[in-house]
Amino acid sequence: MRIVEPQKLANQHTVLKKRQKKYLLYSLLVLLVLTGSFALLINKNKLPATLLPKQPSVLVPPKNKPAIQRIFSGDELVSFYNHLSQPNLIRIITPPYITGNTEADTRIRQIAVQRGYKLRSKPATALKEVDGFPLQEVVFRPWLDMKAAAFSAGINFSIVSAYRSVATQRKLFMSELLSRGVSIQDVATGKANKAVNDVLLTSSIPGYSKHHTGYAMDLSCSGYIFENFKKSNCFKWLNSNNYQNAKRFGFIPSYPPDATSQGPNPEAWEYVYVGKDLLYTTNY
Known about the structure:
CATH architecture of the largest domain: 2-Layer Sandwich
Number of domains: 2
Strand content: 5-15%
Structural class: alpha+beta
Number of helices: 8
């Protein structure tokens, strides 16, 4: 057994007392902190606002605005479509030939452009058919939905013409032109300018028809001959309230009645698909 010397024992007692005092001070400090926090928790409502912890800000989303249809004049519709970029199209850059006679073709194009005709686009890929007519595939569902909505309202219309190739449009135009008894030479020299203009009232030259895009269609109304479409209940359903029912499904008239320069005369039966997004707005 080892005996501790008196001096060392006294030193040990001194160290022990110092540690006890240190631990006591720590305990008191912790107790004070806990007591203060508890008091702050209980009385926080009595503290000045500047001493209270800040609450996170909550963002309140704005109320959703219902989309309303945009209202267009005839000239605005023409400009809208002329500046529209649609998918699966290739712009026709070089005007296709019409008669094969350079002078005659140049003269016909000049008259057409003066009337407001513009070079259009053609499909970048092959088209599929809906209701027996080739159209851009993106048009299928809107067309079928519009036709079904019209049928539910007692309106029955159908497609009679949709996509047309440049070659098909050339045949249509030349058939109309030659049926007027003019020669290609008369066209080239300007003697047939009136005949050319008369054809352009209803028929586009090749390369300048919206039917080339696969987004345009001619409609026929049940119970009415084609030329009387404007007098039909189909036209009224599509056309009323600035084409409200047509816009619901993404369609606008190809050649509205109040446009000043658009190529052919207004065609009540032709509509072109442009999509709904650009026809409605929440900015009001």
